[in-house]
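Researcher: I'm preparing a figure for a lab meeting and need a structural model of a single chain. I don't have an experimental structure, so a prediction will have to do for now. The sequence is pasted below. Please return the structure as tokens so I can convert it later.
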Amino acid sequence: MIFHGKNALPRAALTAALAMSLGLSQSVPAAEGSGEMDVNAGLTQALSVTCTALNFGTTSIVEGTRAGGGTVVTLAATDGALTSTGSTAFALDNDSAATRGECTISGSASNTGTFTAAITTTVNLSAAGGETGPDTALTDLTVDTFTTDGGANDGSGGSTINIGGNLTIPDGLLSANMGDYTGTVTVTVDDNG
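Model: Understood. Here is the structure written out token by token.
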């Protein structure tokens, strides 16, 4: 190829520019390093709560409209005693083995202080299954105003809490409403730790 003086400068500039661009476009190897990291996890026993039933026993009560209207039967958390307010046309069956609920707690990491329990809902009881359930179940037989007693820590992360409450029996019962009823509530326990 023959270069003429007039074209020599632009071709030289083009060659230099091409050489520079090729030199600048070369990749630089990436720097790499490594280090170690600890990964930790811990497991501990969860607070365990096991409860027996709160049982109001059997209340003997008349059908129809009662003087005084509905009846509220209170089972005390402190001693399991039964009392009532409202209608007087009923009898608490002393042989019915009414018992307060009892929650046994274990597995707390705290060995001091006291435990507290809470039930913050009203439960509508429904017909028990089998032959002892009513023919026509009530929809407004309720238990609420739950109370507690106990909760002292036994020194090994456990305790016992007794549960009581109020059973409200509506007025105007039918013979078909008589029978056994049942329900479930959640007892939330805090170890205050």
